[in-house]
Design goal:
The protein is α+β, with helices and mostly antiparallel strands and about 575 residues long. Helices cover about 55% and strands about 10% of the residues. Helix 3 packs parallel to helix 6 (about 105-120), helix 11 (about 335-365) packs antiparallel against helix 12 (about 370-405) and helix 12 crosses helix 13 (about 415-425).
Length: about 575
């Protein structure tokens, strides 16, 4: 996917639609970062992605990673590209200058990682957790650990992992068995096994910083008994730590990224944050990762769209309705136009949502206005799970639709579209499955305060019919949950519908911003705007109907329960 091909669109969305430079320049750390500087950074980023990372897409898939006696070799060219990446300062775009970073707005980093994922998802998995690891260490690590590791992680000289999952536990972190035993010198001995560890072992960097969830000997059961430990691959004296990669997984996609089974055999580590509060520290990392995973969905859908659009502009097949020639370009057939315009609506609207969320992250950190910080924090808390779930789901479904444009040619590897479909599928699973994102949104965030936070967010959007409908169903769900305590599973039945409905309302808002901006009525934006209203937004009625039916069923069941009490 040529990043340079999207540069003009992205600059339009940042400068004209979101007025992003004015927003970040109002924050003290970014006062000097004007639109011209941002444009230069993005131009150079696009060149790097197109020249150094994109050409490795096919070799990453076809050659893949190789495992040999605990060692992992990444595909040809991967190490050289990564060394150029970190030495060029790209991982450190949004990190603080005092930590070796460039101190630029988070939204520029978001654009970079969207491009990287679209160009080469397997390669991008390596640095994909760096910013989350940086935030975790910056906020929770001791001064001694920061002095030794923070700058190495910020700059990307050393890569990092997130070691949560165990074979028997899956998404239920409360079942984690890995243990960390404190030592007299302040370190800990970590023992246990973790699975699905992206980049657990590789040859890209000289050291790997593992962030490992484990239990202290006296820890309570369940998730409240988890602590976080920093366990390096190589210790300060240069000796190899007792961290072993047992194997790498054979996967559906992402062959360029080693997914490792890791074993810790009395490995030396250090506590990060407070004892038994490891999830608090880890969630800083996970929340940062979830926004980036949403961007993966957008970037990979863009890559699929570019391939499908280029193919449709060249392939001739049958006569299109109303055409005079016996054979037409397939882009002239209504079904193909519908596919391409619909995915374009998701990509463009998704970018507005993701970039706006990145701006809110900086506002939440740096604004001097308490109310503005609170509103930004509310937006990020509620919208991040929507971005992660809805746009990875659409990334997969939309990439599959783009494959369909190729017909049988899409199913063979020559055109590269089938690799995108395979690679993007995992984004619906990792960093918390999309079902967990829906539960997080509705149960843990929306209903936790009776819907007040969501209603406050919706009140900041234009009062469209769809926005009002989401506000009403939010109120109805909160009321039903309060009135039906004997049905604790009620919100779980409709969580997926609620998240999808929220995504559609936010998508409508994003496109409202696009079309209202200077230049938003240009021909470039007309077809996807029409597709949004014709083929995308009508889905909201179905999602609302499912939720209303479930509420009606709950009321009937409540009457039965009351009559038998």
């Amino acid at each position: 996917m040529p990043a340079s091909q999207t540069l003009a669109d992205i600059q339009f969305l940042l400068t004209e639609v979101l007025q992003a430079p004015a927003q970040w320049q109002a924050l003290a750390p970014f006062a000097e970062a004007d639109a011209e500087l941002a444009g230069q950074v993005l131009e150079e980023a696009a060149k790097f992605v197109d020249s150094a990372v994109a050409p490795l897409q096919r070799v990453g898939d076809e050659v893949g990673c190789r495992f040999d006696a605990g060692q992992v070799r990444t595909p040809p060219g991967f190490r050289d590209a990564y060394q150029a990446f970190w030495q060029g300062g790209w991982p450190a775009l949004a990190c603080a200058p005092e930590d070796g970073g460039q101190g630029l707005p988070a939204v520029l980093e978001c654009v970079l990682y969207e491009w990287l994922a679209g160009a080469n998802h397997g390669w991008t998995m390596a640095p994909g957790l760096l910013h989350g690891a940086y935030e975790c260490l910056k906020h929770h690590a001791s001064d001694a650990l920061k002095a030794q590791y923070l700058e190495k992680v910020a700059t990307g000289e050393w890569l990092a992992t997130m070691c949560l999952t165990e074979a028997h536990a899956g998404s239920d972190l409360g079942l984690v068995r890995t243990r960390g035993v404190p030592q007299p010198d302040g370190s800990a001995r970590v023992n246990g096994s973790k699975i699905f560890i992206s980049g657990g072992e590789h040859d890209l960097t000289d050291n790997i910083v593992h962030l490992v969830l484990a239990r202290l000997p006296d820890a309570p059961a369940g998730p409240k008994g988890l602590s976080l430990f920093l366990v390096p691959k190589v210790l300060e004296d240069g000796t190899r730590n007792a961290v072993v990669c047992e194997r790498i997984e054979e996967k559906m996609g992402l062959h360029g990224s080693p997914t490792c089974v890791m074993r810790f055999d009395d490995a030396t580590g250090w506590l990060v944050g407070e004892p038994n509060k490891g999830l608090n520290a880890m969630f800083v990392m996970m929340n940062a990762a979830r926004l980036h995973v949403g961007l993966q969905g957008i970037g990979l859908l863009e890559a699929a769209w570019q391939k499908a659009s280029a193919y449709a502009a060249e392939r001739r097949q049958m006569r299109a309705p109303g055409a005079t020639e016996p054979v037409s370009l397939i882009q002239d057939h209504p079904s193909i136009r519908r596919t391409l315009h619909t995915q374009r609506a998701w990509i463009d609207g998704g970018r507005v949502l993701a970039y706006h969320t990145a701006l809110q992250l900086d506002i939440a950190k740096h604004s001097t206005d308490a109310a503005e910080r609170a509103a930004a924090q509310r937006w990020c808390a509620l919208v991040t799970p929507v971005l992660k779930a809805a746009f990875t789901d659409q990334g997969f479904q939309g990439a599959s639709a783009c494959l369909q444009v190729f017909g049988g040619h899409g199913y063979v590897s020559e055109w590269g579209i089938e690799q995108i479909v395979r690679d993007v599928r995992v984004a619906m699973i990792y960093e918390g499955t999309n079902e967990i994102q829906a539960i997080d949104l509705l149960v843990r965030k929306v209903l936790a305060d009776g819907g007040a936070g969501m209603q406050a967010l919706l009140a900041t959007l234009p009062a469209t019919t769809r926005c009002n409908a989401l506000a009403q169903i939010t109120s109805d769900l909160a009321t039903a949950v309060a009135q039906h305590p004997q049905q604790p599973d009620l919100p779980y039945w409709v969580a997926d519908e609620y998240l999808r409905a929220t995504a559609l309302v936010l998508l409508e808002w994003a496109w409202g911003r696009i079309t209202a901006a200077p230049g938003g009525s240009a021909e470039r934006w007309q077809a996807p705007a029409h597709a949004l209203h014709t083929w995308v937004l009508p889905e909201l009625d179905m999602r609302l109907a499912v939720m209303r039916q479930r509420l009606a069923d709950a009321a009937v069941l409540q009457d039965k329960l009351a009559s038998t009490a």
